[in-house]
Amino acid sequence: MPSTNVKAISESTREKLKLAISQLESFLNENALPQLTAEDQGNESELFYKGLLSDLRHMLVFSEVAYEKLGVALRRPNFDTDFAERALYEVYHQCVNAFFYPKNECYSEDGRYAYTGQDAIRFRKKPVRTGRDIVLSVSKVFEELRDDLSYYESDYMTQRRMQGQK
């Protein structure tokens, strides 16, 4: 991939991560487990929100680390394409996958809804409005990142292996 293209993708990815980080950070700073479970009593409810908060925290950390790596790549006087491509690969495999395949499976993506104009995210249990809103809000960012970085799903590592064999 040409370095100018990698630089442009790195810049747009960094901006999208910045948006996701600000949304996640705001939600996590303003909401805690007692607040989320206050409206929805029950043991299953508490487990659901513990899982959701845990997944969102992981997503925030992965996104912040990737944001910083892309910032390092973009601030260097000579743009290091290999470093930036590796950072983009990590964005796809850590941030995007952390969103679409959450460890606690409080929500999942249902591909059948992706083309209907409806939200493709389906929750295991109906969350409170703020919980639903944050997941659906960042889902748009991570969908865009998934589309932008689809090359890094498998083609990037295939290319690296082939270069190593030469």
Structure notes:
The protein has 166 residues and is mainly alpha-helical. It has one domain: Butyryl-CoA Dehydrogenase, subunit A, domain 3, CATH 1.20.140. The protein is 73% helix and 4% strand. The chain is built from six helices and two strands. A two-stranded antiparallel sheet has the order 1-2. The two termini are 18 Å apart.
Number of domains: 1
**Principal-axes shape call:** elongated
* Mean pLDDT, all residues: 87
Report the top-level CATH class. Mainly Alpha
Alpha carbon gyration radius: 18 Å
- Unreliable stretches (pLDDT < 50, length at least 5) are none
SSE run = HHHHEEHH
Strand order across the largest sheet: 1-2
The rounded distance between the terminal residues' Cα atoms is 18 Å
Helix content: over 70%
- What is the third-level CATH name, the topology? Butyryl-CoA Dehydrogenase, subunit A, domain 3
Question: In total, how many beta strands?
Answer: 2
Give the CATH architecture: Up-down Bundle
Q: Strand count, sense and closure of the main sheet?
A: 2 strands, antiparallel
Tally the helices: 6
Strand content: under 5%
Category from helices, strands and their pairing: mainly alpha
InterPro entries: DUF3907 (IPR025013)
Pfam family, one: DUF3907
Protein name: DUF3907 family protein
Organism: Paenibacillus sacheonensis
